[in-house]
Amino acid sequence: MLSPARGAAPAARPNSSVPVLEQQKLLHNKAFHLINDALNLDAASNYAEAIEGYKKGGLVLKEALELHFDTDQLKESAVWTTKMRDLLKVYPAVANHCGNDETIANIVPVSKPTPAKRLAPSSSGSVGHHSASVSGATTRSTARAAATTRPGTVTGIRKKRVGTTATGGSGTTATSTSILAETKNKVSKLKNIDPKFADMILNEVLVDGASVTWSDIGESAEDYNVDTSGLSFAKQSLKEIVILPALRPELFTGLRAPAKGVLVFGPPGTGKTMLAKAVAQESKATFFSISASSLTSKFVGESEKMVRALFMIARAAQPSVIFIDEIDSILTERSENEHEASRRLKTEFLLQFDGAGTNADDRVLVMGATNRPQELDEAARRRFVKRIYIPLPEAETRRALLTKLLSGHDFCLTKNEIQQLVEQTEGYSGSDLTALAKDAALGPLRSLGETLLDTPADQVRPIQYQDFIQALYTIRPSVSPQSLLAYEEWNREYGAVSC
Ligand code: ATP
Ligand code: MG
User: Fold this and answer.
1) Type and span of the H or E element at 51
2) Pocket (CB within 6 angstroms of ligand 1)
3) Which helix (H) or strand (E) holds 324?
4) Closest ligand 1 atom to the C-alpha of 264?
5) Core-most of 54, 171, 281, 303, by most CB within 10 Å?
6) What is the ipTM of this complex?
7) Residue 414: pLDDT band by 50, 70, 90 thresholds?
């Protein structure tokens, strides 16, 4: 059934007596290794050999795509066929900068990627607070990384309390040192891993502590089955997809096998990164966290190696979760002037995500977060099978959040005033509300004027409703109504579904 492609290395071709589905997997694995090696050569500026490798990989992919399947095999084969088609869409671009794209394009005819449906532009021309330009991904990412990463951390997640229960308990059964030590031990047995990246992953990307718990995240409904806040729905979904399968792997097999990719998306400042931090604490999975922008900025020219090492370690330390914040930075739709390094990174990411050459039962979940979902390409969307919308907080969530923010402070707002605030803050995100409360909390100090330096702490007046009224003038909602509509449209089209 195997139809040989022009120029494929015959010696390595799978035996035609092998069942066709098996042949498909073998070919996919083979292409995976060839392209992986070519990416390495490419990164080392060894272009001539890289081109050879790309060509060979392309031929093998093509060969796999030409296999014929019986009707009853179509469903099973389709998964791999789609993965390989996706790869081919990125693939020739990887070879472009080698100056030989014509050759590659001739060998591997590529159908044009279907343009993803664009959303109604927001007032700023994009959903969220970022530029709508796709081509500027690398520059933008670098700037974003500089703005968001703290020295010594990759995403700012540092401390993890391990051994907690899925219901938010805090019983500690192991120390964070043991997670690090355990993972280090597993990594030491890995061959072919660059020690530089291994060290970096263990020290900066592996989450060895948690700063956020479920209860830190404002929501209206304690009962997860009552979906009034949006966040309770998100929590419930993350519990099902990420936490419970990690805690009880034996229950999540066969039809219940957990998704390999989950995406949280929504307007900026709604708690997506926070949710991931909480998931890190609640699941016993080994949790790796990195922002895509730091991948491209901190490891310039080497980010694909970092991705490869990360997946290797995650597989060795499974069950694991790889959280990639700002995933849009690496999985944007292809564009003409896309940087070559971004293409390499994207290809590597897709290869690793599909996990060719590894065990199908691997328990590695990739969790992505983005406030620019519309910029993700089709291949990325397909891999993030579960897509969870994190909306702006609704009234009840705003009340819970405001109350939480005020707790621990001296304040004198009546129930009625809090209710008014809840109404006045419609359209505010979680981070807008936090900024609002912080500004209002400064009110009592501002009112002291010159006497601030001499007033004893216990004589500072409580925070009052009027402080919030003042703060409402300066702290405005950061998400525009137009961009909100665009998120909702994307959610209607792609949200919370399996495909
Ligand atoms: P972005 O899309 O810009 O990355 P995000 O959705 O990841 O935004 P976070 O970084 O998780 O947003 O939240 C920013 C800050 O806003 C948090 O540190 C927290 O102070 C506050 N915040 C946002 N949402 C919530 C929430 N639901 N509960 C409590 N605090 C929240
Ligand atoms: Mg975030």
Assistant:
1) helix 47-65
2) 217-218, 231, 268-274, 371, 401, 430-431, 434
3) strand 320-325
4) 6
5) 54
6) 0.97
7) very high
